[in-house]
Specification:
Mean pLDDT: 84
Helix content: 25-40%
Order of helices and strands: HEHHEEEEHEEHEEHE
Oligomer: single chain
Strand order of the largest sheet: 1-2-3-4-5
Largest sheet: 5 strands, antiparallel
Strand content: 15-25%
Radius of gyration: 22 Å
Shape: elongated
Low-confidence stretches: 225-248
Number of strands: 10
Distance between the termini: 63 Å
């Protein structure tokens, strides 16, 4: 059995594994002195099976975290048995509310071979597919009353704090939103426009309507049940309220 105090082995393994996985992953190492970060990470390990059982007996003393640009994360931890290798588990996004995980099956972790190239095949062929499904379901749940947009229509939803949220389905629409002050949360996929100043908010809505329309993308505004729209609703131009997109 390998020496669990040797951080270089874990960090090197994670670096190779990150480079062999599909898409783009980066690797970072949490050393034993990073107690707060390790404790926070342990709370988010998305596992109720192999990795959870190991952590119940052996608290997290070091870890390697693999991160993907969309917010997905995997954690690699020591394996406390008579076999070489490591354990890998999915990490639940901290930006999603607890309610988002209801009825979502945990993408339980797996044991990895000592060879990181073989380990990458194990992750890609098993854990990663289950993790992506669970992530998609949790992110969908997090949308709540935010109705998903379509490629030819962006649905904007007023929020209780006065902000406006949307989940665009088209990269062109996303670029327009970002250019006009919407902030993207990569872990939930939601774009939000702050509502603490109603005049700039109304101006933004007036401006994005023609920009999206030029791309053949319409806009729909919706008000969650039981809530009224802020006063900024009135300055929004009529063409920004349509629920049907102009034909391409």
């Amino acid at each position: 059995m390998h020496d669990h105090d040797t951080s270089e082995r874990l960090a090197s393994y994670a670096d190779v594994l990150a480079g062999e996985l599909p898409d783009t992953w980066t690797s970072s190492y949490l050393e034993p002195d990073a107690k707060d970060d390790l404790a926070e990470l342990a709370e988010r390990i998305w596992d109720l099976d192999l990795v959870a059982a190991s952590l119940a007996e052996h608290p997290l003393k070091q870890a390697a975290v693999l991160s993907r640009p969309d917010g997905a994360q995997l954690v690699i931890v020591d394996r406390y048995d008579e076999r070489d290798g490591f354990l890998v588990a999915a990490v639940a996004p901290h930006a999603l509310p607890n309610e988002a995980y209801r009825a979502v099956r945990e993408p339980n972790g797996i044991a990895l071979a000592d060879d990181p190239f073989l380990g990458a095949e194990q992750v890609a062929g098993d854990l990663l597919a289950r993790y992506d499904r669970a992530l998609a379901q949790a992110r969908h749940n997090a949308l709540g009353h935010i109705r998903p947009s379509q490629p030819d229509r962006v649905v904007l939803t007023w929020q209780s704090d006065g902000s406006i949220a949307t989940a665009p389905a088209d990269d062109r629409a996303s670029a327009v939103l970002i250019a006009h002050g919407f902030v993207h949360d990569p872990q939930s996929g939601i774009y939000r426009l702050r509502g603490d100043d109603t005049q700039p908010q109304a101006r933004t809505l007036r401006e994005i309507g023609p920009r999206l329309d030029a791309l053949g993308i319409g806009i729909a505004l919706q008000h969650p049940a039981g809530r009224t729209a802020p006063a900024t609703a009135s300055p929004v131009p009529a063409n920004a309220r349509t629920t049907t997109a102009r034909s391409r």
